[in-house]
Amino acid sequence: MGLIWEKKLKQITKELQDSKRMLNQERTKREEEAREHQELEIRAWETERRLRQYQERERRIRDMFKYEYWKRISPLYSMELTDLRKSVRPDTLFYSQEEKSWGVAVCYCYQCREVLEAQYFSSELEALRYMAIKQILGISPEFDTCMECYQNHMKACA
Ligand SMILES: [Zn+2]
Predict the structure, then answer these.
(1) What is the pLDDT of residues 117-147, one digit of tens each?
(2) Cα 38 from Cα 61, distance rounded (Å)
(3) For 37, 67, 130, 153, which has the most beta carbons within 10 A of its beta carbon?
């Protein structure tokens, strides 16, 4: 009888130790998970902070550019015609008898240099101002092929 009890006691002790070990393992696992979770939260928070910094910097740069362009564009609105004539490259400006207005070439044929598209203004001043703004922004005229040059090209190829 005593031997059986001893055996039983040993078994219970072993089960208890096993349970304790499992409980410890479980606790360690939980702690690890909690730590990982915390690290992830910190990382997410840092990423968010960095993103905000980046957006802020981008906004500042954009504002700086806007201000720089505005500083250069706004004086054009109080500039005299003669001064505007001097500060604008005249190559895209022309007077159209047909339209009875001033045109600024927007698109040329790159072979015969014919103006394919233009923006028209009722005064030279307005046309020059338009050209000056494009010049400041660094926008050049576009190039395309006119119908005649295209047909000539197709004939030459045939
Ligand atoms: Zn052409």
Answers:
(1) 999 999 999 999 999 999 999 999 999 999 9
(2) 35
(3) 130
Gap from CA of 92 to ligand 1 centroid (Å): 16
Which residues surround the ion ligand 1 when the cut-off is CB under 5 Å? 109, 111-112, 146, 149
Distance 83 CA to ligand 1 centre (A): 34
**Distant-in-sequence, close-in-space partners of 117: CB < 8 Å, separation ≥ 6:** 105, 106, 107, 142
Q: Which of 121, 132, 116, 115 is nearest to 99 (CA)?
A: 121
**Alpha carbon of 39 to ligand 1 centroid (Å):** 66
Interval between CA 118 and ligand 1 midpoint (Å) = 15
Given a cut of 90, whether residue 29 has pLDDT beyond it is yes
What the block records as the tokens of 55 is: 């957006």
Answer whether 103's CB lies under 8 Å from 94's CB: yes
Q: How many angstroms does the Cα of residue 101 sit away from the middle of ligand 1?
A: 23
- The closest of 135, 119, 138, 118 to 84, measured between CA atoms, is 135
